[in-house]
Amino acid sequence: MNDVIRVLVADDQVMVRQGFTVLLNAEPGIEVVGQAVDGADAVAQVAALSPDVVLMDIRMPGTGGIEATRLLTSPADATVKVLVLTTFDLDEYVYEALRAGASGFLLKDASAEELAEAVRVVAHGEALLAPRLTKRLIAEFARLSPAPHVRPAERLGGLSERETEVLALIAQGLSNAEIAARLVVAEQTVKTYVSRILTKLSLRDRTQAAVHAYESGLVRPGGR
């Protein structure tokens, strides 16, 4: 049971909550432990149920998904991962949710296989969640963000040259294995670099690292 991923589904539409619950409970190694009707309810249930992942709708009455995400991920000891649900692939609120601490996002029309895989990826924190559109969305809304007033090097927390290179590749959506192949190093070495990057920049996961890379000016939208 220790390997079971515990999930909370937060959405103001009962049919959506029930639908995702049925789909996820049919997947091996995943269990839906609760359903929340809005953001405030999600925060309360996370405290009570300690899920590993929250499927969080962005647009809910009262406390919305962005504020709930910020409340859940801001504590230094927060362990829950938030997977944002959205209807539109370029919803402007998705980028704000990623900045607030969400580990990734998923369209509500995703297949059962995509949903389950997204939950597993976010739960294990092994790669930037990119089922179809995450990289494109981060780049698009980074384009709309104000240009940084300082040089990238001044915003990268003393990263080494190789760590900076790894961060840029993370922002391009590459997995550890792909980065290892690109740099011709062992995958474990890449994992060590990623861990150091997150520690030095005080970031929670790879998604936050990707956002930081764009906002710092290290990676430019549409660039390499």
Average pLDDT works out at: 82
Q: What fraction of the residues are assigned to beta strands by DSSP?
A: 5-15%
* Strands, count: 5
Query: Spans of 5+ residues with little confidence (pLDDT < 50)?
Result: none
Count, helices: 10
Cα distance spanning the termini: 42 Å
Strand order of the largest sheet: 2-1-3-4-5
**Helix fraction by DSSP (H/I, runs of at least 4):** 40-55%
Q: Please summarize the sheet with the most strands.
A: 5 strands, parallel
Spell the H/E element sequence. EHEHEHEHEHHHHHH
Shape: globular
What is the gist of this entry?
By secondary structure, this protein is an alpha/beta fold. The chain has helices spanning 14-25, 39-49, 65-73, 92-100, 112-124, 134-144, 161-171, 176-183, 187-201, 206-216, and strands at 5-10, 30-36, 53-57, 81-86, 104-107.
Properties at a glance:
5-stranded parallel β-sheet
Structure description:
By secondary structure, this protein is of the alpha/beta class. 49% of the residues lie in helices and 12% in strands. It has ten helices and five strands, in the order E-H-E-H-E-H-E-H-E-H-H-H-H-H-H. The protein has helices spanning 14-25, 39-49, 65-73, 92-100, 112-124, 134-144, 161-171, 176-183, 187-201, 206-216, and strands at residues 5-10, 30-36, 53-57, 81-86, 104-107. It has a five-stranded parallel β-sheet, sandwiched between helices. Helix 1 (14-25) links the parallel strand 1 (5-10) and strand 2 (30-36). Helix 2 packs parallel to helix 3 and helix 8 crosses helix 9. The radius of gyration is 17 Å and the shape is globular.
